[in-house]
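@channel anyone free to eyeball this complex?
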Amino acid sequence: MSETLQYSREHHPEDTVVEVGEAKIGGDHFTVIAGPCSVESEEQIVTVAKAVKAAGAQLLRGGAFKPRTSPYDFQGLKAEGLKLLSIAKAETGLPTVSECMGADDLPLFEDVDVIQIGARNMQNYELLKAVGKLDKPVLLKRGRANTLREFLLSAEYILAEGNSRVILCERGIRAFDEGSRNTLDLAAISMLHERTHLPVIVDPSHAAGIAKLVPTMAMAATACGCDGLMIEVHTDPESALSDGLQSLRPEEFAGLMGQVRQIREIANGK
Amino acid sequence: MSETLQYSREHHPEDTVVEVGEAKIGGDHFTVIAGPCSVESEEQIVTVAKAVKAAGAQLLRGGAFKPRTSPYDFQGLKAEGLKLLSIAKAETGLPTVSECMGADDLPLFEDVDVIQIGARNMQNYELLKAVGKLDKPVLLKRGRANTLREFLLSAEYILAEGNSRVILCERGIRAFDEGSRNTLDLAAISMLHERTHLPVIVDPSHAAGIAKLVPTMAMAATACGCDGLMIEVHTDPESALSDGLQSLRPEEFAGLMGQVRQIREIANGK
Amino acid sequence: MSETLQYSREHHPEDTVVEVGEAKIGGDHFTVIAGPCSVESEEQIVTVAKAVKAAGAQLLRGGAFKPRTSPYDFQGLKAEGLKLLSIAKAETGLPTVSECMGADDLPLFEDVDVIQIGARNMQNYELLKAVGKLDKPVLLKRGRANTLREFLLSAEYILAEGNSRVILCERGIRAFDEGSRNTLDLAAISMLHERTHLPVIVDPSHAAGIAKLVPTMAMAATACGCDGLMIEVHTDPESALSDGLQSLRPEEFAGLMGQVRQIREIANGK
Amino acid sequence: MSETLQYSREHHPEDTVVEVGEAKIGGDHFTVIAGPCSVESEEQIVTVAKAVKAAGAQLLRGGAFKPRTSPYDFQGLKAEGLKLLSIAKAETGLPTVSECMGADDLPLFEDVDVIQIGARNMQNYELLKAVGKLDKPVLLKRGRANTLREFLLSAEYILAEGNSRVILCERGIRAFDEGSRNTLDLAAISMLHERTHLPVIVDPSHAAGIAKLVPTMAMAATACGCDGLMIEVHTDPESALSDGLQSLRPEEFAGLMGQVRQIREIANGK
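replying in thread with the prediction:
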């Protein structure tokens, strides 16, 4: 069967490079997506967008539709949030990434450059099929308790519909310890690269759940050969409406970018 | 916060009894849902429906939209499958249960009595909100790696939309051993009953993944005080289009029903 | 390799029945081991021993050497505890089961009828080899995160030394939920019976960690075909020096014994 | 309670630096332990010892007593292996690290500089107490499914006996995926450093289980701030008697040492 699977190296030996505006993800490129967990206001998203661009991020992330465990938690600014994200995109020229939780909302994402499918929806096959019909890249996050095979077969749902621009994102798996929110499965990077031509990025922010762990986990993921990172940055983490605890300040993010670039060169033996 | 949560005992001390036609789920009732994993043909579903009714099942299950890990596996007969399920319902009078994977398909489920939300969609919040707006019961399966708190908060998404007829279903959690497909978390039954007024049923078929384990796990779940069972029955497991390995034959199912009834009486100290 | 493994059905097709005094474990027998987590005083152990014998237990358990996560928790009465256990044995005629944590302590266990190896020591190979040289039965508990293959190979360490009287004990595996201390893996009972001729008993007390879950889990394990149970009983759980929360009172235990006997008959189709 | 725990920062704020001959582990030091999984012959251990010393390792590892899941797998050269390890120590001057599986074997370890307690014995309290009475450092590996609290309390067993020279070693936790043998829990490094003054090293060889993953995981662990690494090196991995698949060749190890040194400087912001 594996020969016929579109995600497989047998099907497509060379690395897939996903192009988003001027940004390239995969192959020899190393790409950083940064921004706030949630879009909260025009000032917030524009300020963060300019800061992460200055620090070297190639794409801007910003959540407008937020999957929250409780229905009573902040659910995002929705359509309004996407409008504000477009303003930040216009001001900085950064392509944008934002999560979509249901096919019916896709029309609102017209100006969003990369559609994110969250970990909770990794096996929401109706949504995977819907984004498979789009002509824009999809960033697919691994579910918290899904094997690599399940992850790749979810990507296959998108590829099978004709959309070949899929970016895989490891964001931590559920383990038994109370200490960290999720355990980043860094060995998955090499194992995914071996089995698929699709780019593999890592989200250390959700894995760590604590800002002080983010830089080390980001450097670690880079040393393991990921094709990029997705990192939460907020100008005022304390007052963030969601995930403030795991957001870096722009200056912390800028410092990390420098370290990450050097680590990538060393890991690549350059 | 827990006072305000609609699933909680604080909010609603007495057990919720969900009525589906003549069937009642919850409280002092013990209810069995049985049928094939997938609806395959009129003859198959009608034959199984009559057999499970004769053996004492109160509801008929039959999958028309099948969530499969691979996009190339049998995906179900879809709309046609739901038509065949309605025929079996008409011939036997059994209310029906079938899984819906996306809000856009809901209109096709008009004649289905209970909408099932599968484990993969337990945190598909758009779908939960959509079924929360329906005037029919929802059977919500626990995700393979979700805590009881996450499970109950997903139920809350449905309750919060105004639909109070939610049935919880434990179907096994992901563990580390290769042996069984999933490990049935039977302690969850008592713990859920303590925290919520919603009925809790168990699906031993998906947990076991092997037919010979189903009867013992069904009896075990009954001994643990579940409010009912959902069991896969097929007249010809070997040729089933999905999950044949875990389906019981009608005669096996009939024998199990007798054992389950006796075990429930003993466990209740009657 | 499996042909050569002494635990395997290929090596020894018929069930092994372990005899301990008048008690028999395995085959068609159903055997209950009961007693306090820790031996605390002569009055306590003798009172509990008489109570569990009256309720139908065939063996008496009592911990003298206690493996505790913290070095500052009560570690058991050690040699003195074993003396008190012998007194209870003499007064009731019940064979005894007690945990040994190190080969050097074995001489103190001369009057103990069954040596228990705890979950933490399942892969303490030096200890397994030492008890493999004894001429008395060994009750081997499954580690909290060990596969069935690892469990059986640890039993093989004992068998390989010449001691064929090994009793396997499932006591719960580590899962991700905060709710229960351990998740009882009941499907393991059938899977172990398929692969090995050794008897398989279940300890619902340690799996549940809460007394009110013990009866239901004990009945569930019985429905799944285990060869016996090991249950903690204490005359005054509130003041127990260890695991009081999960101990049953003698009267609760007596009631459970009656239910368990009936459930076993029903599960066996008698 | 935590104030009284000897492992805690409250008890001992500054980092503990464990001295072994000229090697120092902890604080500002970065220390590498390398060598074969098993000592196999004088030529093998001496050759590897010279190679890892030349590449910058400060300590030599070599297993003489091997904990193997099956009693029929190679169990190590035992006393003879320790003699050969001493020869390699004499020829290179490298202090040695070797695993002890039972207190009765400790007299044989007189010339071994650091006693290793393996993951399977992390809660073998009799062994922990025995090494707690020694006047030499102990390298304690985290069990595959133990929480950080359980890990630290096992260290406390050693400290409580009077031996303050304990080195903690993360070697991977059991997860649900089939892909990698164990998942390295790198977030544990920071979390342990926060809670304890004891040095924390990482063993990427056992976590990865595949040689090609070892360099990336070693660099990742270094980026996360571990105090050192323990790496398996073999001159002829294909013919190794144990764990050959995860052993690096001396030249691979030498290259990795250079990368690790640079990554540590970058991660430390130097």
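from a first look: Residues 250-267 of chain A form the longest helix (18 residues).
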